Amino acid sequence: MSAPTAGRRRGTVQPARQIALDILIAVRESDAYANLLLPVRLERARLSEADAGLCTELTYGTLRLRGYYDRVIELAARRPAAEIDPRILDVLRLACHQLLSMRVAQHAAVDEAVSLAGTVGSNSATGFVNGVLRTITRTPADEWRERVLAVTKTPDERLAAEYSHPEWVIRAFRQALVTEEREIELETLLAADNVAPRVSLTALPGKSTVEELDAYASPFSPVGATVDRGDPSRLDAVRHGTARVQDEGSQLAALALSRARPIEPGERWLDLCAGPGGKAALLAAEAALGGATLLANELIPARAQLVRNALAVFSPAPEVLELDGTAMGEAYPEAFDRILLDAPCTGLGALRRRPEARWRKQPRDVADLAELQFALLKSAVAALKPGGVLAYVTCSPHLGETRVAIQSAVRKLGDSVSLINTQEVLAAVTLEPLDLPAAEHVQLWPHRHGTDAMFIQLIEKRR
């Protein structure tokens, strides 16, 4: 984080706001991930619980609603956002979130923003920030919304403005919902993406139980729990690695594979793209209870180390390889009884947790990833034993990464594979029934299930 702060003049800025601005700059300039950077900065700063909560809301709230705030800023400044110095624009976005979406005193939000502008811009920039924000404070938040929507030209642009999503993402979500005959849910979905998700925990089977956690049992996952507020690392089980912070949708993706059929002692399992290790830890726990063994693989060394850290709670810890997943079928032909392919994807299903992804991804990314996704799937099938089970998982509802990808893969792979009714498998796993339209796959949704938008399809390799 030295780059965003290098060479600037330090003012009397509240640490929570300074850290939030630093993270916004790092996300934009260095492609940093807020969900990875924020915990590190909070730990270093040793903020009070209240200030840490403020910093978290400032960071994620601003990232989620950046598109909307840019439209407000353009109206107030009477110039395109692209013509404003990027760091000053980040200061304005941060202030907009406080003025339009939080119960922060206007004078405090404006004064702090002017001080922040002084750390990243010139004296003239501080005057510009002060003028724009004073203009914004003279109009109530509801009227700003009306003004922003009044200048939109199409229904999709209106949705993009109101819910702060790129138009191409809105079209992709609509297409996915149309296939479920649930297009009416589109605005509810977009609104859900802008709400902070609950903290979800996994009690690793054989290591801890849901009852041991100071939390509420999850509605669907039998190993899941949720926390209303506070730092989950305060829990002994989380500190010791016997429970983990993990979205309930990710839990269900791992459990769909581990509980697709009874485990036979001696089975070999593979997590092909295991980073950062959450699903691998749950699979390892399930495998150990059933007498199976897990091998994890992650190409990127830093992420491979995260997997090792996640698996360190087991003795002996499962091995973690750093191989190209597309070559796994050649390295380990027909070696595994079960394989999890949590394929690299756009991550559009996790916009609540990684809000910057909506601004970072482009439509071309779907096509670029499709080739890699099929190469990994083909390799996984080659590494699977005849009669073995593969779970294809993406954290995306985009049809190009889900239903269309599977249909294309099945055509290319021919008679070597067949689809397993994943809904039937999870119906026997979940504590409560999932609201799903009839299909072979499972598509989870933030607005309907309270999870990330995980796609899960079980596949069997024919004997």
Annotation, overall tally of beta strands:
12
Helical residue percent? 40-55%
Class from helix and strand fractions:
alpha/beta
Uncertain regions: pLDDT < 50 for 5+ in a row?
1-10
Overall form: globular
Overall pLDDT: 94
Q: Predict the CATH topology of the largest domain.
A: Rossmann fold
How many separate structural domains? 2
Which CATH architecture of the largest domain is right? 3-Layer(aba) Sandwich
Number of helices: 22
* Proportion of residues in β-strands: 5-15%
Euclidean distance between termini CA atoms: 53 Å
- Main β-sheet, in a few words? 8 strands, mixed
CATH superfamily of the largest domain: Vaccinia Virus protein VP39
User: What would CATH call the class of the largest domain?
Assistant: Alpha Beta
